[in-house]
């Protein structure tokens, strides 16, 4: 209200003397209005920090850039490691990892650790090859094995089930990992980020950035593909 009042007073009526005194009053009003508006802006900025802190960094071009990490979630998709087909009597659900698969998981975990990222939740298909992949990966990155969640909906699931699992991640976690099977996990990665990954190899790892504050808000086509790594890739 003060701003509105002073703004009106800064426009002098035509019949008012525009001598030095009037001009000084005009300038004083203008300065006060500017200061008041500047102060309102600072107060609004500080209030916003209570909800979502904003950090600024000065790059080489000496420009300020806003960090919006608080508005993002990070999702990793890991296809189970290479499995064994040596026992034809085993059901698909019970197939174990083979020697190569067992060796690939620690390799991918080591590459993952180089990112400096901390996983808040790991959700896996309950199939033996996926659960073993989850256990080996969790052990390698220091994630408690007891906290790995087996979700039956990720076994022989479609993209819709992967989306449902993503939306169910604990909101206290900013970073989560889903471990599952092809073709669903590749289809889900592509649908979520509008990417065109041909296929995720065994132990393939996709990182997606989600522009949401709540896991429950994510939908197809909204994510950004950050990286796609796999054991035979020459550069992680």
Summarize the structure.
With 236 residues, the chain is an alpha/beta fold. It is built from six helices and eight strands, in the order H-H-E-E-E-H-E-H-E-H-E-H-E-E.
Polypeptide structure, described:
This protein is an alpha/beta fold and 236 residues long. 37% of the residues lie in helices and 17% in strands. It is built from 6 helices and 8 strands; from the N terminus they run ααβββαβαβαβαββ. Strands 5-4-6-3-7-8 form a 6-stranded mixed β-sheet, with helices on both faces. Strands 1-2 form a two-stranded antiparallel ribbon. Helix 4 links the parallel strand 4 and strand 5. Helix 5 crosses helix 6. The protein is globular. The N terminus is likely disordered.
Furnish the topology, listing elements before pairings.
Layout: H1 2-9, H2 20-51, E1 55-58, E2 64-67, E3 73-79, H3 99-113, E4 121-124, H4 128-141, E5 149-150, H5 159-167, E6 175-180, H6 184-193, E7 205-210, E8 224-229
Parallel strand pairs: 3-6, 4-5, 4-6
Antiparallel strand pairs: 1-2, 3-7, 7-8
Helix pairs in contact: 1-2, 3-4, 5-6
Low-pLDDT residue spans: 1-18, 44-69
- Count of helices? 6
Strand order of the largest sheet: 5-4-6-3-7-8
How many beta strands in the DSSP annotation? 8
Give the distance, in angstroms, between the N- and C-terminal Cα atoms. 59 Å
What structural category characterises the helix and strand content? alpha/beta
List keywords for this structure.
37% helix; 6-stranded mixed beta sheet; globular; 17% strand; two-stranded antiparallel ribbon; 6 helices; alpha/beta; 236 residues
């Amino acid at each position: 209200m003060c701003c509105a009042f002073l703004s009106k007073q800064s426009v002098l009526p035509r019949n008012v003397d525009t001598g030095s005194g009037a001009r000084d009053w005009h300038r004083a009003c203008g300065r006060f209005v500017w200061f008041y508006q500047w102060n309102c802006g600072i107060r609004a900025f500080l209030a916003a920090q209570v909800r979502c802190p904003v950090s600024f960094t000065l790059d080489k071009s000496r420009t300020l850039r806003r960090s919006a990490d608080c508005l993002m979630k990070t999702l990793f998709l890991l296809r189970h490691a290479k499995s064994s087909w040596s026992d034809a009597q085993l059901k698909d659900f019970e197939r174990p990892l083979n020697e190569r698969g067992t060796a690939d998981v620690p390799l991918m975990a080591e590459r993952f650790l180089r990112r400096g990222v901390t996983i808040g939740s790991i959700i896996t298909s309950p199939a033996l090859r996926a659960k073993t992949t989850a256990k080996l990966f969790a052990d390698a990155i220091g994630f408690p094995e007891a906290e790995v969640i087996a979700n039956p909906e990720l076994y022989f699931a479609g993209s819709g089930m992967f989306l449902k699992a993503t939306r169910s991640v604990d909101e206290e976690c900013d970073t989560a990992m889903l471990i599952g099977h092809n073709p669903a996990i590749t289809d889900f990665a592509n649908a979520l980020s509008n990417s065109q990954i041909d296929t995720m190899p065994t132990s393939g790892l996709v990182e997606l950035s989600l522009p949401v504050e709540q896991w429950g808000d994510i939908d197809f086509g909204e994510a950004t593909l950050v990286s796609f790594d796999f054991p035979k890739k020459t550069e992680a």
